[in-house]
User: Fold this.
Amino acid sequence: MTPHKHRLGVFPTPLQKIPLFLERYGVSLNIKHEATSHYIIGGTKLRSLEYIFHELSTQNITDVISLGDINSNQCKIISILAKKFNINCHLFIRTPENRAALSSNHLFTKIANANIISIPVNKWLMVSAIANRLLEKLKRENKKPYFIPFGCGGFPGFFGIMELGKELLPAISSASQNYIITPVGSGSLYFALTHFFSQNINTNVVGICPFEENNHRHAHRFKQWTEELKSFILPINNLFENLHFNVPLHLKTLDEMTRVFQEYEVLLDPHYVLPVFLYFESMIKNNYFQKGSNIIFINTGSINLDNELISNIGHL
Ligand SMILES: Cc1ncc(COP(=O)(O)O)c(C=O)c1O
Assistant:
């Protein structure tokens, strides 16, 4: 049976046409702005978390546990929703030694009063074991904890992304080749949209991962989600075909953020979506996409600023 959701955001989210792409590169580009679904917790992850929090309320969960890095959108959204649903929230945050003291996402998790447990980068490989210890401890205290994995993928979060797929249908062209560009972290968005469009031969989902990752970890997750969702999906063999890993991060982020805004009137999150967009731009310049294609770029998150970036602005 398809799971249920709490409606927590405003959907559908808008598409922004970028006319300069047609002029410059001969492709039609629209950007789907997912953050508009909520003024603080908007973003694609909210779609999955609508289903996950429904599950939490039907199971009478007392404590939610999750994890992410200091800029994590997932952790921000979970901490604020946990407050709304009166559930205790424990977050394991990957914390570099020389980290910028604060980013806006991290600030929100603090304001939402989440129990933040900092894990140094060199201990991060042990985070699952550490989280599991907390899970067991809470159970011994007669609480009902629930672990939300990195990416909110699998059952039931997958169904939130299916709704994004449905929202994209009116923007899919029957006359030309379509590409949907997705940022990739855990790969859950890419996985779900690839399934959604698997029967649509003129639509390719292209995933771009701006972090150091490897096929192995994604292969493991894809296998696990395929197993969890097997009564809802058909297995797909070539899941890696359109996945690009470890794309180079641009160091002069502020300059690139400024250029993208000046040229296209698009403001993108410097930590996540901007590097993906820059790589996508380089693919266009290298003729990866057919001329005349119809492209939809998913702007998955809101803008998260840290004091390091802001201090680079210099003196006004
Ligand atoms: C803004 C944003 N975009 C994309 C992603 C990646 O999504 P996924 O984990 O589904 O690959 C994340 C989370 O990691 C995110 O916060």
User: Anything to note?
Assistant: The chain has eleven helices and ten strands. The chain has two domains: 15-41+154-309, 44-147. The chain has a mean pLDDT of 93.
